[in-house]
Amino acid sequence: MAAELASQPETWARAAELRDEQSRLPRRGERIAVVGCGTSWFMAQSYAWLRESGGHGQTDAFAASEAFPLRGYDAVVALTRSGTTTEVLQLVGDVRGKVRTIGVIGDPASPLVDLVDDAITLPFADEQSVVQTRFATTALALFRASLGEDLAPVVADAELALAEALDPALVDAEQYTFLGRGFSVGLAHEAALKMREASQSWTESYPSMEYRHGPISIAAPGRVTWQFGAAPEGLAGDVAATGARFETSALDPMADLVRAQRVSLARALARGLDPDQPRNLTRSVILEG
Prior knowledge:
Keywords: Hydrolase, Repeat
Order of helices and strands: HHHEHEEHEHEHHHEHEEHEH
Radius of gyration: 18 Å
CATH topology of the largest domain: Rossmann fold
Shape: globular
InterPro entries: GlmS/AgaS_SIS (IPR035466), GlmS/FrlB_SIS (IPR035490), SIS_dom (IPR001347), SIS_dom_sf (IPR046348)
CATH architecture of the largest domain: 3-Layer(aba) Sandwich
Pfam family, one: SIS
Largest sheet: 5 strands, parallel
Helix content: 40-55%
Number of helices: 12
EC number: 3.5.-.-
Oligomer: single chain
Strand content: 15-25%
CATH class of the largest domain: Alpha Beta
Structural class: alpha/beta
Enzyme class: hydrolase
Number of domains: 2
């Protein structure tokens, strides 16, 4: 996990240069669904918000097991590192011949490559660790670049996130709640998942404006509320009043996710855990039958 985490500025910059691959993603004006499982679902949420809010067309994000892919979409984008996830394979098989499918896949030898209409493979971002870091964010970098965004400042922010010294108090916190707005809601969910997977930590995640509708009751001294991107007005003060730590950064939210990944790794190592082989998890969820 450590080496893969640290390679993200390089893989993001590489994804930003993949003009042919970006051109094979859905065109402006097309109505699309983006599907994935776990981490890939959270990246789908971020892509969907960026694409639709940028005026590129209606974009819905689904967990693959809960998708409604036959709603007259022009295309379905399936995001998966392994290309072997049961729910994704089932969904793509079910819609084959009915709607164009585009796979964004880490493993070019996976069965999904031959099942989709168009396979975009990112083998340079594939990983050995069960806990995903660079594949997910590299796919999001590809999506962001395809929407016309300049990724150079984001890459620079990621380098800063990797160079920053981690505050031991941040690593040793009792509990974490991650918050986001817009495209960073998906990043908040992903940060919480990383913390649970790698370090068996108590984490939650919410849209920032929803936090005060109940979840703020968990905030207390020794706990962290971590905001990705700009915070809603008054939220920092509300958290401070609970005694919890309000963590935020001027970095791009995707780069701030790198900071959260580093914290999850540091917590795992401090607890004597192997973040590359978390309990109860495998690199891909393959269901029998």
